Amino acid sequence: MLEGIHTEEIIARGQAVIMNTYGRLPMALTRGEGSWVWDAEGKKYLDFLTGLAVNSLGHSHPAIVSAIQEQAKLLLHTSNLYWIPNQVALAERLVANSFADKAFFCNSGAEANEGAIKLARKYAKKRYDEQKFEVISLESSFHGRTLATLTATGQKKYQEGYEPLPAGFSYVKLNDSTELEARVNDRTAAVLIEPIQGEGGVYPADEEFLQTARRLCDKYGALLIYDEVQCGLGRSGKLFAYEWSSVTPDIMTLAKALGGGIPIGAILATDKVAAAFQPGDHASTFGGNPLATAVGCAVLDIMLAEGFFQDVQKRAAYFRSGLEKLAAKYQTAGAIRGQGMILGWPVAKSGPEIVEACRKQGLLINCVGGLTLRFLPPLIARETEIDQALAILDSIFSQVWNG
What we know:
Blueprint: H1 7-17, E1 29-33, E2 36-39, E3 44-47, H2 50-53, H3 62-74, H4 85-96, E4 102-106, H5 109-127, E5 134-138, H6 147-152, E6 169-172, H7 177-183, E7 188-193, E8 196-197, E9 203-204, H8 207-220, E10 223-227, E11 251-254, E12 265-269, H9 271-274, H10 290-303, H11 308-330, E13 337-339, E14 342-346, H12 351-360, E15 363-364, E16 366-368, E17 372-375, H13 383-400
Parallel strand pairs: 3-15, 5-6, 5-7, 7-10, 10-11
Antiparallel strand pairs: 1-2, 2-3, 4-12, 8-9, 11-12, 13-14, 14-17, 16-17
Helix pairs in contact: 3-10, 4-10, 11-13, 12-13
């Protein structure tokens, strides 16, 4: 523990021993409560990034703290050589509230997407033939950092230096139904879609595109996979983003908010698809351990309480309206994008500068692609806190945008 040490020393010691894989901001967060975090110097920040959509219920939520404490007294880990009661309970909650019949647990979104790709290929080979293995994903998508998931990620910058990449992946433009129609064929094992692209700029998939994907998958015996690692678990204003459309996937991946800060990932699938996995086909040492799944149960119990999502939708609409007024006031690059509490504000210029100015004034957000401000507030953020965030943004735009 590095308690009582100033940020400069933490950074210097960290640079000496930690691999240089992140462009970290010059700050070290040491405490959080609700929508707020504090750094090593005691400065307070309104957290509208929530650990990249992980702390969706805010920081140090009493129910999550209690679940961790109580489970830590009992049992932390056993491995999946044995049945894990909490894992069963979490799977029951997920299955009862989704299209799925079965769940598999792992440790992250990348692992969940890796497992989903494996499941789709195993299903295709068992039901069809060896030539059915291709995966179609979307340009500007993001699915993880493993070798397969960064190949599925439709952004060259994440793939450079890791060639040769695994074979069988290709990309189409989001919401281009014509291009998707031309690409899916008998060799297609799966179409992989984020219902709302997060890292790619907060772009939702439209209804026509999703319907086209579903129709083509049914026609060619391919599986439709939804990556809801970021946009799922309440982020869109419903438990799952797919609930906003008429289209249901065959496989869905989850992570981030599912553990409220404790690492966990999940693959959900229908019975027909899940049956492609048999003992020995896939595994995870830590996946779904007693601690992670105890917290997952606590998270879902909070989210599934009566009125929770109605409140999220109300606050999300309030926040979006405020952003839209600011975008109109400063005549920025385009309309506010997204759904619920995953929103993007295209600014076309000064994105990183605005993010840094927000940080200095006590608001944490980020910028994707250098052009879009991304907002991932806690689902429990109060209107007064939203007002504070909007006031900071207004102040900064008045200084930066026209300057």
